[in-house]
Amino acid sequence: MIKLKLKYIIILLIMYSTFPYAQVKDCGLPDNLEEIFDNTPFKEFKQKNINDAKAAYIKAKKGDAASAYGLYANLDIYGKTKKVKEMAKCWLMVADELGYPNATINIAINYERGEEGFPKDIKKSLQWHKKYFKHLSNAKYGKFEKARIAITIGDIYLASDFSERNPTKAFEWYKKAVVAAETPTGEPFNETSQADKDLAYSRLAKAYQYGFGTPVNKEKAQFYFDKIVEGNDNNTTNYIIKAQEYEKNGNYTKAAHFYYLAALRGVPSATQKMNEFYREGKGVAKDIDMANEWLRIYNGTIQGKENNEKTD
């Protein structure tokens, strides 16, 4: 009996002494590291990259999240074979399980786009976006990133092709985006920050304007539209110039933002662009209803301009 108890005690001691190893999946390390890192643009760092990968592998097996993510990044960038890509994906999942935020958002985006060996699965993308939002909620900074993620979650719930479409939940997430954007944290404020803040106001304003998940409330809609105007100068020409420059460079998200600011001030070419962007999904989620709404506004703006010219 004593020998039997001693045996179990020894087994438990072994289990606890190897606890970190038991909790982390070993995704492995390619045998052909030299061949993999031949693809690096800096050949003089090839041996260092190989040594770093081996060191990261040892740390990752012990539960180091940053090392697991580092292995994913290097194997995904430089690996060319299906086997290495699957190994990279495995380490990405391990990094996420170990609580590494960058891994979480990468998985969310991969499920959203169906990239890096992940099937396109909006439901799973939503799951990992929420997980990433929780990571950000525990962080001191990152309020604008938090606002962007809340908007993305809201957009998923509002998407017409999402099987679990829920405008009420979309509205709640848009409110969270505004709260995040307005929370004082001492973070630097720049043009990108203003764009994120405006996007949060815009989503909430449209929810009130069209009754997405909440009763239509024109006063509240105008209140949040006014907040966008308050946070920006009134030089519509400047908005158009910025929008055109961003569109030319392929940054459709920022282009849409500045066209939107100009459209709010009744610039016909900007409202026409908003119709185009929503119809084609450029810089915004593809939404035919919103595209038609902007087309209606555009036609109304042109008609009003023609009436004014006739009156004059």
Molecular structure report:
- Helix content is 73%, strand content 0%.
- It has 312 residues and is an all-alpha fold.
- The protein folds into three domains: 21-119; 139-232, no CATH class; 239-306.
- Helix 7 runs antiparallel to helix 8, helix 8 (122-137) packs antiparallel against helix 9 and helix 14 crosses helix 15 (268-280).
- The longest helix is centred in the last third of the chain and has 24 residues, at 288-311.
Topology readout:
Layout: H1 2-17, H2 19-23, H3 33-36, H4 46-61, H5 65-78, H6 82-97, H7 101-113, H8 122-137, H9 143-158, H10 167-182, H11 191-210, H12 218-230, H13 236-248, H14 252-264, H15 268-280, H16 288-311
Helix pairs in contact: 4-5, 5-6, 6-7, 7-8, 8-9, 9-10, 9-11, 10-11, 11-12, 13-14, 14-15, 15-16
